[in-house]
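Problem statement: downstream parser choked on a complex file, so we are re-checking the raw output for the adenosine monophosphate run. The parser issue turned out to be on our end (a line-ending mismatch), but while we're here, posting the original submission so the record is complete.
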Amino acid sequence: MRRSGFSLFKPFGNRLRKVLILVIGQGAREHAIVATLLKDSGVEVVCAPGNPGIAEIARVAHVNPNNSAEVVALAKDFNVDLVVIGPEAPLVAGVGDALREAGIAVFGPSKVAAALEGSKAFAKEVMEAAGVPTAAARYCVTVEQAAEALDTFGAPYVVKDDGLAAGKGVVVTNDRAEALRHALACIDSRDGGAVVIEEYLDGPEVSLFGVSDGTTIVPLTPAQDFKRVGDNDEGPNTGGMGAYSPLPWAPENFVAEVTKNVLQPMIYEMNRRGTPFVGLLFAGLAITSSGVRVIEFNARFGDPETQVVLARLDSPLSELLMAAATGKLSGLPELKWKSESAVTVVMAADGYPDSPVLGAVISGIPAAQAQGLSVYQAGTKANELGEITANGGRVLSITATGKDLTGARSKAYAGIETIEFDGEHHRSDIALKAALSEIRLGDDS
Ligand code: AMP
Ligand code: GLY
C-alpha cells in the first residue's frame, strides 16, 4: 500500500474538532465540496487524491480512490468520522461497501445501489417498479435489436451505452446511420456490451439532487447544466460546461412534486429490495409537454451543478451528509437556501471533449479569486516549476454568486477574462436565457 502521501502529515490529534471528513475524488465537484465543508465550524477535511486547488485548502493524500483497501486504510489511519465519496467510479468499485464493513460512516451508496447510475437497464427496471415516469426504452444486445428499436421510436434517436461513460456514452441524433454506429460500438465495447435505445424527451432539462439516508430523502435546490460543448447547445456532449441555480422559469412546486413522484418512490423501492440508497440521488429530468420525466439517475453529486447548488446552501453541509450517512435525516432541521443566484462556467482544454491537449500553463487564478470568485480546479496539475497546468478536459470551474443570475453571470465571466491558458475554451451563454427571463419576470412585476 502507498502511504507516502499521507504518512508525512502529523496525525490529527485530540484537538478542538467536532468532525474530520475524508472526501474521495479530485475534480471541481470535490473542490467545491471540500471548500463548503470547511465553512462549517469545527470541521476538518482530508481529501484523496485531491488536486492542486484542494491542496491549498485541505490536506491531500495520494491514494487510489478506486482501491477499497487503500481508502479504508487511509480512513482508519486518520480516524475519520465520515467519508464522502465524490465520483461514480469508487462507488461502482464498492469502496462504500468496504468502508461500511470496516464500521466507517459513508456518504455514498453501496455498489448495488450505485448501479442506478452504472446500469441504465437497472435504473429503468427500478423506475418501472417504483412507478417513476421516464422515457420508454429497449435494452438491446444485438445490432438487429438495435435497428428495430431505432425504427420503433423514430428520430431523434437516443442511444445510450449501458455502462458508465461519465455522461459521454449517449448519442442523440437525427442521423440513423450515426445512431446505429454508436449502438454497435456499445455492443462491441466489451463482453456483455449492451445498448439502451429510447424515446426522445423534448423540453428543458433540470438536475435535482436528493440526499438520502436510505429511507428519508431531502431535496436540494434545482440547477441546470449545459451538456454540449458549444454555444446554443451545439457540438458533442460533454460532462457539463456550466450550470446555474435557481431556475426562475421552473414550474411552481417543482421540487415538491419531483420529490413526491420521483425521489421518494425510488428510495422506497431501493429499500424494499433490501438495497437502500444512502448518498446522493441525482435525478436528470426533462420537463416535457406531458410532464416531468426522468432522463437518468446518477448516484453522486453532479459536476458542475454541485458548484452552484453548494454556493446557495445556507445550512451546514457536514451535518447534512453526516445525518444521511448515519440514518438521521428525518431529525435534521429544514435546509436553508440563500436568495442569491449562482453561476458556474467551465474552462476547458483545447480539444475537449474529443482529445484534450494537456500541459498548458494557467495564469490569473489568484486575480480571479481576488474578485471574490471561487475557482474550483478539476483537470489541473502542478508542473516542476510549481505552475498550475491543464491536465484534463474540464480544467477549471469558475463560480460566482450575485443578487440575481444576471449579476452572477457577469461576475463569472469577468473572472474568466482574467484567467488564461493556451487553447482554453468555454461557453459564453451559460445561464443567458434564464438571466433574460429573469429580467422579463422583473419587468412584469
Ligand atoms: P444521460 O447520460 O442519460 O444523462 O444523457 C446525456 C444527455 O443526453 C442528457 O443530458 C440529455 O441531454 C440527452 N438525453 C439523454 N436521454 C435523452 C432522451 N430520452 N431524450 C432526449 N435527450 C436525451
Ligand atoms: N453534470 C452532469 C453530471 O454530473 O453527470
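For whoever reads this later: Residues 135, 158, 160, 167, 170, 172, 198-201, 205, 227, 237, 284, 295-296 surround adenosine monophosphate (ligand 1) (CB under 6 Å).
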